[in-house]
């Protein structure tokens, strides 16, 4: 730990793992482990209700970390959702009410593997839910040696004299090998984390209860956290190993980097606490909009009576005025107004009919315009829906090649003029960038480090299917790269790949990097002399995989440009920087003069000593302001470096670039190339949204071979659905691919 170079290759993982076993011994006995090194104590903690059946509990993360000259325990407060104990039938009915009648298939991912107990046998018996069937107790039948073919309802009455209350309105539970139990006879055991994806309302509630100010988190960690984790002397089992943990937080040195100057068309914006106002500012370069259209999606909430509704006309006119005021050029004539009425969600839970209606409306509009597509379509949504939004993105991007920009009517209708104007400004940021405009730039001083030589900034990310996705759903990989000297315009390449084959590593990186270099060359008539790669989404244990799998592919892409007409092989300087957001290091200001009004450390705070790697080059940068809750820095780790910038240059340059994110008027927590790669992955998830929710009722009782065959079928279906995506090779999609359609 003293940093001796002879120990650089020493593998400390076995020792750290052993120490974690000791440190976490008390929490293992008294709490519920969720994920790696996170412990929750639902039986002795105050919960926060997110929705009927779902409760959030605060817990704590604890892990031993080696730092220069000492070992530390990284402790952090965290929050997760748990399934409320109680009757399973009541839980399913609550889900049905909250999901507007989306029964019975959608609880599948929520309840799978949940532990339940039954008492109808005369004793307590525990089951793990394998699946939730699509049939009720009345219409689910099976063969029985005593009764012959019989329904589940009849069986429980004849065998146990139990008359079911929900024989016709709730599905039965498959506990394995087609053993069906009515939900009303099952009791959910306490202490089980919720494995599904929180809906919009639940997520909103979770944010409210989890967003605590730094002082609240500090008190929770030092007080409740130390006690429950067993780090307090009175509860610590580690004293028997002669291990003592300090009861105080460690003070480490840090400093605040200055904000860069931001250039708009008519001058500079004034930065205050990491943000700035653009209400009366014109974009650096406004987009040209030859035509645009408006699609009003009426989904049970008819905010507008029809196309002549004065509020609708006023909203459209107000947004058009905002675009002009921001510097965009658009026709004086009003846009075409399209209205589409969707069938009720309880009649169309997967929204297939709804999306077909939207698709038909889109196509008819383009046909009436004789194939002349609008530059973009403004989509007005009455509510956010897990199917409608991604479905429209797929229709626009993949099927029709039309930009779509969405507005939530709840955020803009009947709002105060200043709030509506601010919302219009935020949407205008997206429109201008999508259509080739430039919102703002950094001044020459901030760009000096990147302009010493021609440079391309690259962001890479991979997103995987969730636990509620269809088996075999592929991973989505995205690579974005800059094409201009101001680093405000990025183009993207996306691929799908079989998760089991590549895990987190990107499988076709050489081909994708060739695409990105070709785009840079086409725009600048030359290739970059330096390439910075910002890799998001990999854990500490995968750093070496990036070097052994992805680095060779990047170098292979460079070789593709080493043609005979070049005087020397093409080999730009390359640096690879990992961007980590999934760490648990949180910073607390030691004095109010170092904190903002919420108690967070100020934007531009950088830490590169005290808790960083013993041998490596890494730093923590909090470029953004903590708007709500406790601000979290990004951990940047330089794992490969040929550019040889100093630590100060890399840190200040990364900080300055955090002000270039096109969709915001404030610095963001993650450098834009990595942020854009994440956005591109999320857009790819929209294209495969049908595969991200598994509506199959049962996979129980099938052989491993059958499951593998289904995985392969799902993958092939996803690959077919993905098609060629948004590609430069498809003429009608060329402009969409060139611009930042993923924003």
From TrEMBL:
Name the record gives this protein: Piwi domain-containing protein
Residue ranges of domain PAZ in the record: 87-190
InterPro entries cross-referenced by the UniProt entry: ArgoL1 (IPR014811), ArgoL2 (IPR032472), PAZ_dom (IPR003100), PAZ_dom_sf (IPR036085), Piwi (IPR003165), Piwi_ago-like (IPR045246), RNaseH-like_sf (IPR012337), RNaseH_sf (IPR036397)
Pfam families: ArgoL1, ArgoL2, PAZ, Piwi
Domain Piwi: 376-689
Entry GO MF terms: RNA binding
Native source species: Lentinula detonsa
Biased composition (Basic and acidic residues): 704-716
Similarity comment text for this entry: Belongs to the argonaute family.
Region (Disordered): 697-716
